[in-house]
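Sequence, structure tokens reproduced for reference:
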Amino acid sequence: MPPLPLKSLLRTDIASSGTTSLPLILVLGAIATVAYADHRVVSISLIYLYILPLTVGALFLRKELSYSLIAACILLHYFDSPRRIPLGIRILHDLSALVCFTFVLYVIQKYLAQREALAKAIGKQRDELVRDVNLAAQVQRLFLPTAKPAIGGMEIVGMMRPARGLSGDYYDYIPISDQKIQVVIADVSGKGIPAALLMSATAAAVQLEAGHEQSMQEIVRRLNSGIHTVSDEGVRYVTLILAQIDVKERRLHFINCGHNPALLLRCRTGGLSLLHSSGPPIGLFEGESYQLDSVELESGDLLVFYTDGVTEAEDASGEEFGMERLSDVVRRGSLCTAEQLMRDIFESSAGFSGENGFHDDVTILVARCNFDDLPSQAS
């Protein structure tokens, strides 16, 4: 008959941790030490010292083996003790020790069983939560664009990298006509599930309101009213830029609602402009009005929209990536495609933070004006 493997003698959680022979050696060695001391000392019984190795054994060994060791300890004391006492007293003494040892081990085994049951319950809940979060993340991704927009004279790309499973960032590009397209980028205050839920509500509202020939100010006003209603009346809010690019007129119309300023790099002069906020975040105040701004665009100009996960990325010393480094990356990418510049911005911020990683969601949207590629009748 093949010998039993050592792992079969240990409790399941101990065996799975990789520890095998050491607990068994520790327990048997302690029992042998107590037995030797009990044999050498004649003046007093040392049987209750066996409780020490038995307690350790209950923590590491299987329940059946732990109870078997009680019997082994009682027999060692009965046959190995040199003391001469009446048989009845010896039996009574050993039986009292047996009851005491059994009770102590029972309490320990009961505690360990409850702890294992609690660990299993927590593990099951954790697995269910992970599945739910993964499912919610999949649903969130349905709100994001799946392909580049097909509009002549523009190259527009975007990406979103959540810091956790769920994200509080959102971006989209919504065609209005053959020559007009709306782009939106948003960042919900806070993190975790509440921010993700509000992001989903924002995305649904944007897709419902945008994409029509209507006033951008009216779109933002309706968004502000709707988000304010579902965000605990201003406890949570959303920073947002809604922009509309008119290829025919070569103009950008935009409303910045408390969001990070977008960057406009002029191809002809190399100048970099910031498209600052003109109002508070949406959902913060009821009945807020927002200013519509516009700038002229030229062929080769670059527009960069981003969330604060890019600029607030920190290195090991706690220094932030910041606007200055972002601006430098954009200037260096003046001749890049929108796809290349987007990738350069992300990689520069990620490289700056290094092993520290991103602590916030990162979203980048880049638009390059290629008006010179348009047919002459569209210019």
